[in-house]
Every structure is written in structure tokens, then in C-alpha cells.
Design goal:
Number of strands: 20
CATH architecture of the largest domain: Roll
Helix content: 10-25%
Structural class: alpha+beta
Low-confidence stretches: 364-368
Order of helices and strands: HHEEEHEEEEEEEEEHEEHEHEEHEEEH
Shape: elongated
Strand content: 25-35%
Length: about 375
């Protein structure tokens, strides 16, 4: 009786083991999807998804890739020159002007633009503003252009509102990233030796190749031009910067008309800010004065090399205090070329007020 029970148990175990061994084959035979599966119906997109899709579909056709070259051959053709810089731009007007960053085309001998349609169009630089890191190109063929990007305002932006960036990161064209406006009123140094004020900070992913591309609000309007990232690795780290559209909308028309923008100045050479900090000086130390300049006419004094005495220290401009050079340049830009500004100056530890004309120092530098 016991032997019969043992054999029964062993038989059951053997059957179970056999079932375990053949189970994958049975499952594969009876349940494998050997034909295309039925598509499940999709529900409606969420409101925020529809908004994002609408922004991309509206603006992406007007976003282009900008490639600057050291030679004349087309880099999109076999044997073409390697691009020295690749970035992004966007259609500004129906005449075929394209806005991008100045650093994208600064050293270019020739420039080509690839439209969203894939068409490659030669372009020429018609205006550059290194102080704002902006440049304007003109397409040499302007048939059937996509519409210009709608212009918004940067004066009423709020931290936390949604931001969209479209560009060509690492050459991957028509890429959309989303995020929020992380901060406002940042300051950003430029290759022109000045600072851009009221810069927008965003966490929308911005990588090399996004330079010159549009930053958009939820209505698809331009609110900034992406220009830089803060990243120890050189890739996106969640901190990107955009030139505010109010600055872009002021500078670009001047670049189209004149090819440049005035650089307001008074004809001083400012001492390095690190040197001022070492001397515990708050303000702009006048290291030198350009002969014949408004500063010279107003009697401003630079450092006396013979006796090693410090020059005048500018501590105020108009009603605004001046703690660093950017405070002074901001005031000169707001007043404008051709106007005069009242400066508060420390000389021999006594405060004086002088009135100085504002001139276009960039024009002076361009003279032969």
C-alpha cells in the first residue's frame, strides 16, 4: 500500500515537472502575437499636451539651422567644408531676415541656412551686435518662406510660467524642450565687453546648437533668444539664458537698417573691477580718459601714473547709484546717444557733479 502511494506521488511530481518544461512552448504556440495587434483607441490629449503640440506645429516651420563656415563650399554637400559653428535661428520678417546669436556667425566667411523643409539657402550677415550677442542674416533666396515668429513681450514675464525652446542641439534639428522661467533680471557678459541686463533664466533644456533659437511662451510668441548655458560639463544642466525679446525687438531693426547698433559711452577707460574690489572702492574707477572725448571735455581725470594716485571714481549717474561698470553702461543706454548725463564723481574724497555728453564710442572705434 505504501509503495503504491509513493509511486503515485512520484508520478504526480513527474507530471508537474513535465508541465513546467513544456509550459513555455505551449504559451508560445497558443499566445504569440503572430499578426499585428489591434490598435487601442486613444483618448483626447490633455490640455497641456494640446498646447505644447500647437506651439511646436506653429513655430517649428519658422526655426532654421544656421551653419557658419571658414570656406565657401556647402557643408551639406560631399566634400564641403566643415562648419566652424552651428546654431539656430528663426525667421524675423517676410523679407527673409533671420535672427541668430552673434557668436554663431562671428568668424564666418560664409553662412548657409537650412530651412525646416530641408532646403539649404545661402545667407549673408547684414548686421552684428556683439554687445547683445545678436546678429541678423538675409537669405539670398526668399521664395515661399514660412511666416515670421510672433513677437511677445519680456516686460510682463513671471517666474514659473511655461517656456518652450526650439532648436538644433548637437545638430539634431527641430527639437522641442519645455520647462519654466526659473529667474528674471539675470546679467550676462558678452564678447563685446559689456553685460546684457534683464536676461531670462530657464530650465528648458538648452544645449550646444540651440544658440540663437527662440524661447517661447505658451501662446507661441517669442519671449527671448537662447544664448548660453551654465554647465561644468558643457551640456544642459538646467540653467539656460535667453536675451529678452524687448531687447531683441529694439536691436534687430537697427541691425537691419544700419548693420550695427550704437555703443553709448563717454570716452573713459574703466579700471578692472577686481582692482577696485582690492582697493575697497565701490564705483567705477576712471583709469584713463580718451583725448578729445566728452569725458575729457568734462574734465574727468584718470589714474596719475607719475604719482600713482587713483583717478576719479564714478559713484552715480543721474538718479541711480553706480557700483560697477554695468550700472554705468545701463544708464548710458537708457539715456541714449546724443543726450547728456549727470555723473556723481569722487575726487580727493570729495563728491562732485559733472555733466557729460553721451556719444557712440563704437563709431569712434570704427574710424580708420
Amino acid at each position: 500500500m505504501q509503495d503504491r502511494a509513493t509511486r503515485l506521488i512520484m508520478t504526480i511530481v513527474a507530471v508537474l515537472l513535465a508541465l513546467l518544461l513544456v509550459q513555455p512552448y505551449v504559451t508560445s504556440y497558443f499566445f504569440s502575437a503572430r499578426e499585428p495587434r489591434t490598435v487601442a483607441p486613444r483618448g483626447d490629449l490633455a490640455d497641456f499636451e494640446r498646447s505644447t503640440v500647437h506651439v511646436f506645429e506653429t513655430v517649428a516651420p519658422s526655426v532654421v539651422q544656421v551653419v557658419s563656415m571658414s570656406g565657401q563650399r556647402n557643408p551639406f554637400q560631399d566634400g564641403g567644408d566643415q562648419p566652424s559653428e552651428s546654431g539656430t535661428g528663426f525667421i524675423w520678417d517676410a523679407a527673409g531676415h533671420v535672427v541668430t546669436n552673434d557668436h554663431v556667425v562671428a568668424n564666418a566667411q560664409s553662412v548657409v541656412v537650412r530651412l525646416a523643409s530641408g532646403e539649404v539657402v545661402p545667407a549673408r550677415v547684414v548686421g552684428q551686435a556683439p554687445n547683445y550677442d545678436l546678429a541678423v542674416l538675409l537669405l539670398e533666396r526668399r521664395a515661399a518662406l514660412p511666416p515670421p515668429v510672433a513677437i511677445g513681450s519680456s516686460s510682463d514675464l513671471k517666474v514659473g510660467q511655461t517656456a518652450y525652446a526650439i532648436g538644433n542641439p548637437f545638430g539634431l534639428d527641430q527639437s522641442l524642450t519645455t520647462g519654466i522661467i526659473s529667474a528674471l533680471k539675470r546679467r550676462l557678459p558678452t564678447s563685446g565687453g559689456r553685460e546684457i541686463a534683464d536676461v531670462i533664466q530657464t530650465d528648458a533644456a538648452i544645449n550646444p546648437g540651440n544658440s540663437g533659437g527662440p524661447l517661447l511662451d505658451s501662446s507661441g510668441r517669442l519671449i527671448g533668444v537662447n544664448t548660453a548655458i551654465y554647465s561644468p560639463s558643457g551640456a544642459n544642466a538646467g540653467i539656460g539664458f535667453s536675451i529678452p525679446v524687448d531687447v531683441v525687438n529694439r536691436v534687430v531693426p537697427q541691425l537691419i537698417r544700419e548693420g550695427r547698433v550704437p555703443t553709448p559711452g563717454i570716452g573713459i577707460i574703466a579700471a578692472d573691477e577686481a582692482a577696485a574690489a582690492q582697493l575697497s572702492v565701490t564705483g567705477v574707477i576712471v583709469a584713463g580718459v580718451v583725448p578729445g572725448s566728452p569725458a575729457a571735455e568734462a574734465g574727468l581725470r584718470g589714474v596719475d601714473q607719475r604719482f600713482g594716485t587713483i583717478g576719479d571714481i564714478i559713484v552715480g549717474a543721474g538718479d541711480n547709484p553706480v557700483k560697477r561698470l554695468s550700472d554705468l553702461t545701463d544708464k548710458l543706454e537708457s539715456v541714449g546717444v546724443g543726450q547728456s548725463v549727470s555723473l556723481k564723481v569722487l575726487r580727493d574724497n570729495r563728491e562732485q557733479t559733472v555733466t557729460v555728453r553721451i556719444v557712440d564710442v563704437g563709431q569712434r572705434e570704427r574710424r580708420p
